[in-house]
Amino acid sequence: MTSVDFPKHKKAKALKPTSRRPAKELCSECGLCDTYYVHYVKEACAFINQQIGELEEQTHTRSRNLDNPDELYFGVQQEMMAARKTEPIEGAQWTGIVSSIAIEMLSSGMVEGVVCVQNTKEDRFQPMPIIARTPEEILAAKVNKPTLSPNLSVLEQIEQSGMKRLLVIGVGCQIQALRAVEKELGLEKLYVLGTPCVDNVNRAGLQKFLETTSRSPKTVVHYEFMQDFRVHFKHEDGSTETVPFFGLKTNQLKDVFAPSCMSCFDYVNSLADLVVGYMGAPFGWQWIVVRNDTGKEMLELVKDQLETQPVMSKGDRKEAVQQSIPAYDKGVTLPMWAAKLMGVVIEKIGPKGLEYARFSIDSHFTRNYLYVKRNYPHKLEAHVPEFAKRIVSQYKLPEK
């Protein structure tokens, strides 16, 4: 691959958050435009210049094999597994695998800092990116922040600090921009720990989602769309609330997701060295994808803290995906009794493991393909990666 030769950046004053974004309404607020690396944004931004294939070669020495069903869906990989910590971190969203890897890398001296996201003192869901230098600062960043987050806004601090070995934790759009400017950061070694990501919102959108979905929006600590086809809410008192996917008020929530997320085809974080999520694992387990030797090195640090099992796949997703396309398009919302009943049935006979992950990818890729086609038809051909086009081609989409 021939990499892009960027001009040397100027130590310009960072843009203010209200400054113009070259990606306009498709901006995912990754933070790059808030730094002097804004000079590279037209090449680096995932929503201006989609270049996953080229960056896969740069990062992993090869792009994904589109004829390999697992790589078509889940990207370049050396191995996949399901895992959970034998001694979970208290207060972690799952068992704390991401936090544990970050702490081990920092404590062992592999890295001098970790880019992660805490929350502000005023709002548990308002992201506050930092470069953590202690285990305590890493632990303060545990639990997902389901809002757009300017993780890359701290890039200037990296160069100014003189750090040479860094771990960055982030989602797909952030990591694509990071990989595009990686050679400009002056690092000896960059490690990237990715999480899968889909359907983020701004803070106002999150509030609307909580208020239309949870029984107690003010006490929600974290939530996730899980493999049992339910949204799981964790509350301040430790209680758990579940809401079936099919009972969501789609007619009210259809437009709540950020346009960038509705235009994204990197659910699985293709350019991370190591990915830790849940979508391809049985309920209660985490899904781990090792993409390259750097990712393997990272995972080895915590292998003795994990219980692992091979990935599995069960069921058939295709009919459910095909039915979901017009249902989402029309904003169909089922009565709660029907939604619960459907949830029970699908949990018993529906897709599990990697087949659930494919269900989720298919559902979002078909939806997002239609969104781009309808709203940005001039971008469709260049913006949708080849792997996404192949996945979407399995389904019949509305003509308009």
From TrEMBL:
UniProt cross-references to InterPro entries, sorted A to Z: Co_F420_Hydgase/DH_bsu_N, FRHB/FDHB/HCAR-like, FrhB_FdhB_C
Sample GO molecular function, one term: oxidoreductase activity, acting on CH or CH2 groups, with an iron-sulfur protein as acceptor
Domain called Coenzyme F420 hydrogenase/dehydrogenase beta subunit N-terminal: residue spans: 80-156
Domain of life: Bacteria
Domain annotation Coenzyme F420 hydrogenase/dehydrogenase beta subunit C-terminal: ranges: 164-312
Transmembrane segments: none
Protein's name in the database: Coenzyme F420 hydrogenase/dehydrogenase, beta subunit C-terminal domain
Species for this entry: Cyanomargarita calcarea GSE-NOS-MK-12-04C
Top-level taxonomy: Bacteria, Bacillati, Cyanobacteriota, Cyanophyceae, Nostocales
